[in-house]
Amino acid sequence: MPSDVVRFGNDLELDRRAYELRRSGRPLKLERIPMELLLLLVKRKGQLVTREEIIEGVWGKDLFFDTDNSINAAIRKIRQVLKDDPEKPLFVQTITGKGYRFVAPTVEVQLPVEAHGQTSSRNATSADLISEPKAAAPTRFRKAWRVIAAAAVVLALSVVAFLFFHSRRATTLTEKDAIVLADFMNTTGDPVFDGTLREGMVVQLEQSPFLNIVSEARIQQTLRLMGQPADARLTPKIAREIGERTRSTAVLEGSIAILGTQYVLGLRANDCRTGSILDEEQAQVARKEDVLSALSQIASKFRARIGESRATMEKYDIPLAEATTPSLEALKAYSSAWNIQSSAGSAAVVPLFKRAIEIDPQFALAYAALGQMYDDIGESSLSAESTSKAYALQERVSDREKFLISSQYDLLVTGNLEKAQQTCELWAQTYPRDAMPHASLSGMVYPIMANYEKVIEESSRAITLDPGFVIGYWNLAYGYEYLNRLAEAQSTLERASERKLEIPDFLVQRYDIAFLKGGTAAMQQAAALGQGKPGAQALISHHEALALAYSGHLQEARKMSQRAEEWAQQAGHQEEAALFEAGAALREGFLGNAQAARQRATTALELSKGREVTYGAALALALAGDTYRSQKLASELERRFPEDTSVRFSYLPALQARLALNHRETAKAVELLQASVPYELGAPKSTMYGFFGALYPVYVRGEAYLAAQKGAEAAAEFQKIIDHPGIVVSDPIGALARLQLGRAYALSGDTAKGKSAYQDFLTLWKDADSDIPILIQAKKEYAQLR
Fold first, then answer.
1. Distance between CA 238 and CA 29 in Å, rounded?
2. From CA 502, how far away is CA 775, in angstroms rounded?
3. Right CATH number for 165-323 from 3.10.20.340, 3.40.50.10610, 3.40.50.2300, 3.40.50.1110?
4. Is 0.85 surpassed by the pTM of this model?
5. Cα pseudo-dihedral 37, 40, 41, 44, rounded to 10
6. 328-513 in CATH: which number?
7. Distance, CA of 249 to chain centre
8. Tens digit of pLDDT for each residue in 607-622?
9. What is the pLDDT of residue 381?
10. Chain-centre distance of CA 466, in angstroms?
11. What class does CATH assign to 5-109?
12. Which of 63, 169, 386, 592 could form a disulfide with 774 if both were Cys (CB 3.0 to 4.6 A apart)?
C-alpha cells in the first residue's frame, strides 16, 4: 500500500491523500497537471520517466494531442514551486531527449492503525476505525473477520448517512441562484474519474431548466481574471472564489472514494458567502461500472431537495449513461477534450472526441462535439458527417442536447435556417438562461437572413446571460461590422480583451475593421500578431490576399493565397485550403483571367467537394465561360442541398443567372435573381467559411441590367454594394462595383457621374498590376468618356 506522505528536501512534503504539496506545513499552490506530474515522478523516484509515460500517466492512454508544451510548462511550474535550479537540480533532473527523473532522497510516512486500536490524529479514515482482535486467529478466520468488520463499517456509515441526509432539510434555491460546480475529489487512485465525474454532473444538472449552472466559458474567463490557467483544477477554494466573483449562491463539491469494496460518491452544496452547508447527498455502489448511475442518483436527489418542481424533474431527468455514454473511458476522453478546447483550440481536440467515439460508437454528444469542432476549422463536409451521426442518435441524449443537435443538424447539414430558427427559439424559451441558442441565432441564422439588428440583439443577449462566452463577442462584433458601425465593433473586441477572452478569429476581425477604416498600420499589426499562431496565420494570410487583390496587387495576392493554402494543408485542414483556392478562382474570374480561374477552380474541387467549395468553383467557372462544368456543379448543389437557405436564396440564383448571361439571356437572368431578393443583403455561409459570396446576387443582377442596356437599374444594384462595405469587406466585387457603376452611369447618359465612378476605381487601383484584363478594359473605357 503506498504511503500517505512523502517528505523530501529540508522542509517539503507531498501528501497524496490530501492532494497537497507543503513547505514547512504550509500548502504550496500547484495546479492539477503539474501536481499529477510531480506525483508520478515521486512515485517513480530515481527512475527515468519518459515523455510517453508522462502523457499516459497524466492525460491517459491513447489520447493523442500535442502535449509537449504542456509537459514543459508543468515541469517549469514544479521547479518554480520547489525553487529547483534546472542547471543544478536537487529534485527534478532533465534527461535530454528522453524525459525526467526525481533525484531527491525521500522519506515515506505511512499513517497506519496504531497499537491498541488507536489511530493517527491526522488523515484518519473510516477504515482506520477497524481494530484487530488481540489474539492471532488462524488465517481464514482473520480474513473472515476483516470482511465482516468492513461490511459492518459500510453498513453503519450507510445508516448514519441515511439518517443524516434524510433528517435535514436542504436550503431551497431559486432560478436566479447561480451554482458553480467544483472538480470531484478523487481518492480512489483511478485517474479515469478525474474530470469525468464533473463533466457527467454538468450534463446531468444542465438538463434542468430550473438550475442556473455557471457555464464553462464563464468559469474559464474568471480563472484568467484570477491569474489562473483556463484548465486549472477547480478545487473547493478556487471554486468558491469563482462563485464570489460571479456572484453565485452555491458551490457544489463532489467526491469519490473507496470504502471497503464500495465506491462512495458524495455531493455537497456550500453557500459561497458563508461556507455553510446547503445540502449533502451520498450514494454508493459495488462496481466501477455503476458509478455513472450513482452520479445520476445524487444529481436527481440534489435537484429535488433544493426546490426544483416534480414536473420538470419528471420531464428532464435522463440517466447519465443514456444522456451520454455508459463508458467511463469514453466520457473521460470527452471531458478531457472540453477541458482543453478553449486553450488548445478546436483542431487540437478533434482526436480526443474521435477517441471517445471509438470507445463508444453510440456516443451522440461526442459526434455532436466533433461536428462542432470540424465546423470551427472550416471542414464543413466532415462537420456534416459527424453531425448527421449525432442526429441519428439523438434519442440517446437529454432534452437540452436534443435542441443542440437538432439545431446543429439544420445549421450544418440541411442548411434549413427557417427550421433552425424555430428550434433555437423554442430552445431559448425552454432554457431561458442558456446562451447557446442566442449564439446560434446571431452567428448562423440572422446574418444569412440579412437581419443584422437581430444579430446584435441576440448576441448581446448571449453576453448578458454568459459574460464569459467568447462567441457572443465575436458575433456582436460582426453584427456591428455588417452595419458599418466600426467603432462599436472595435469596442466589442476591446471588451472581450479586457475579460481576457481571445480567439484567432478576433485577429481577423481586427484586420478587417482596420481595412474598412483604411488603417494600413493597424492591418499590418493584426497580420503580424497572427503569424506563427495556429488557427490564425492561414486566415490572416487569406485576408491579406483579399486586401491586396482589392487594390489590384494581383501578383502579391496570389503569393499570399498560396501561403494561406500551404498553412491550411500543413494543419490538416483540407477543406479550408480548398475554400481559399475557390476564393482565389473567383478573384481571377471577376478580374477577367479566365484560364487562371478555371485552373484554380479545378484545384479547389480536387481538394474538396464541400458545399461552399462547389459553389465557389462553379461560379468561377461560369465567370470564365466554362458553362458546361458550371451547370453540372449547379445541378449537383441543387440535388445535394434542397433545403439549404444559402443555396436556395444566394448560391443557385447567382449561379443560374450568371449562366443565363453566358447564353445572353438577360431577362431570364433578372427573373432567376428574384429568388434572392429576401436575403440578397445577407452574408451566406460562404462568407463565414471562405470569405466570399456576400452580395453576389446583387452584383450579377447589376451585370444583367448592364447587358440589357438598363443603366439606371444597373447603377442602383452596384450602389447597394458600395453602400454596404461592412458586409462585402475586401471581396473584389467591392472594388469592381465602382467600375461597374461608372459603366452604368455612362450607359444611362450621365457622363459626369460616370467619369467620377471610373476615377474612384482607377484611383483605388493606381498602383495595380498593369496586365490585369479588367483594368486594361477600364482604362480604355474611361479614355473614351473624355
1. 11
2. 40
3. 3.40.50.10610
4. no
5. -170
6. 1.25.40.10
7. 27
8. 999 999 999 999 999 9
9. 87
10. 15
11. mainly alpha
12. 592
